[in-house]
Structure formats: structure tokens, C-alpha cells
Amino acid sequence: xxxxxQKCPLCKxxxxxxxxxxDKNLYSEKLSEILKIDENDLISKIKNLRCxxxxxxxxxxxxxxxxxxxxxxxYIPVHPRGIDVGSKKFxxxxxxxxxxxxxxxxxxxxxxxxxxxxxxxxxxxFIKKKDLNWVLNNKKRDFGSDLDLKKLNLKKNKIRxxxxxxxxxxxxxxxxxxxxxxxxxxxxxxxxxxELGCSQxxxxxxxxxxxxxxxxxxxxxxxxxxxNCKIGGVNCLIDKKRxxxxxxxxxxxxxxxxxxxxxxxxxxxLDHVEKPFKFLKELNNLSKKQVFIVDNFKTLDKKVYIQHFxxxxxxxxxxxxxxxxxxxxxxxxNKNFKDNSLFILK
Length: 346
What we know:
Layout: E1 2-4, E2 16-20, H1 26-35, H2 39-45, E3 48-51, E4 57-59, E5 61-63, H3 65-75, H4 80-84, H5 92-101, H6 109-121, H7 130-133, H8 149-161, H9 178-187, E6 192-196, H10 204-209, E7 213-218, E8 230-231, E9 234-235, H11 236-244, E10 247-250, H12 251-254, E11 261-267, H13 276-283, E12 287-295, H14 297-300, E13 310-311, H15 314-324, E14 328-329, E15 340-345
Parallel strand pairs: 6-7, 6-11, 7-10, 11-12
Antiparallel strand pairs: 1-5, 2-3, 3-4, 4-13, 8-9, 12-15, 14-15
Helix pairs in contact: 1-3, 5-6, 5-8
């Protein structure tokens, strides 16, 4: 069911210290059901540790990947954040529907609470607005299922007035940003671009619009969404391919070929990988440069949630850059990007 982790999964050092506890979220809820363990017991058993050597955050216990496979194949087969990009959920009408239907006795109560919190946290500068920040318990993010329904009904009209356009880089806007594109273009020229991970929330459409040759690299990972992720009954990747007409490359079959894409985007995927250094080395066989987006957990809440094996920051990326003899770039600045961190290896 679980195995004790004795060494850092990145640098293999056995010297580490406690970093943080876990909070509840959708994945801890579903894992507790699958494992038949009380959710409170589950998140109290698993801790986040910090490696003294490379700075990586990792779990003290690793849940068997067959249980994660159940999560992504059956319990949560569609990537929630991926499917929400460009959806109609960030709207006054959808917010009204949630507020109207939410009921503590409803089996979908937890889902509705999280969706309301997702809408609130996508409103520009929500953390500075008194009519909003209480919903997330005055935190920068909160995935729990607690919500003061009485207060929600009192504040709902003020909240709905603020639901217009989602902030850049948030749940309903994703990473297809012209500001990010301009930043990358200033750093280096590139003709070809690929992504690995979720096909729905990245920059593929924008890169196509800008005349880049685009690809998607398919890689099997039990702790991530795969073939059962569908939009209208169609596999998410196939749906995107039909719209953009890109070539799909197989991670295993293409990693040793001579052709390399100029730039590879890996957005919110690295923390799902069980053997990160092996994965990072293999990326060099696929691409000349890589751009990573990861959670900026240090400024958010110091939490690396249960579905993520690892947490990444400057120190582990510098360790990787030294080992792979690559240069690191990490100076992207944007007021709406503070929940994330961006690192380029070139």
C-alpha cells in the first residue's frame, strides 16, 4: 500500500528534515476511499520532507502507483484544471447555479465548494478583497470542503459582480499567455515547440498561431491523466490534435532519435514523476531547451499536496542544472504568476 522513503528521489541523499504537513483536498478524499483509510489518518501519516543536499521536497511515504492509477483512470479521469481552461464555468451564471444548488446534505457538496473556491481564486486580486478572501479562509489557496453557506448567501451579489474575466495564469485561463510567449522569445529564438503533460492548458494553440511547428509528447505516467481523460467522449489529446493538427511523439520511442524540438514545455507535471532525475535526463534526448512551470508552494502555503510526489524550487533546479551541465534561467516576472515558478534549462 505504502513504502517508506529512505532517500531523496532526486539526489539520493539520506539526509533530510521535516518540511510540512498535508492538507485535505479532492485527491486525499478519493485516496482515503480507495485505501479504506480515514482521510485524517491518511494526511497525518504522510509528511513533506526537505532534502538537505538538493533542497527537493518529497514525501516520507510513497503510495503504490496502482492506487494513483485508479484515481486517474476511474475516480477523477478528466483533468479538472485542464478541462476548465476556456470553459463557461468562470461565469456569473455558473456561480449562481452553484450557490443555488449547494447543500450540505448533497453528495456533491464537496465538489460544489471546491468549484466556488476555484472561481473566487481566479478573480483578479481576490486575496486583497474582503468580500472574497474569507471564502479561502484568508489563504492564497484552499482545497478543503469547508464553507460558511450563510455568509456566502449574504455576499453572493457582491461576489458575482466581480466575475468577469479570469486572471492570467489562473485555473480558467491556463498558461496560454502572450506575456509568457514574448518572454520566451526574448530569451532565445525557436522554430519548433512541444508539450508534455496536459494537452489542454498550455501554449500549443498560441504557438500554432505564431507560426511555430508544434508537437505533443505522449508519456505514460500512472500518477497523471491518461487515456480516460475525455472531452465529449473524445480523448483530450485527440480532441486537441483535431483542432491544431500537430504530430504526437511517443516519449519512449522518440527519446533516442536525432531530431530534437527546440523548446519543450512541461507545465505542472514534474511533481507527479516518481523518478525525476531519470526523467529530466531523458528530456535532453527529446529537446534542446526545456521550460518548467511548477507550484510556488513556498509563498502559497508551504504545502505539497498528496497527489504530488515532489515540490520544486530554485535549489533543486540548480542541482539538476549542474548535473546536466546546463544553464538555468528563472527571471520571469508577472503579477498574476506568483502562485507559480518558471525555470528554463538550456
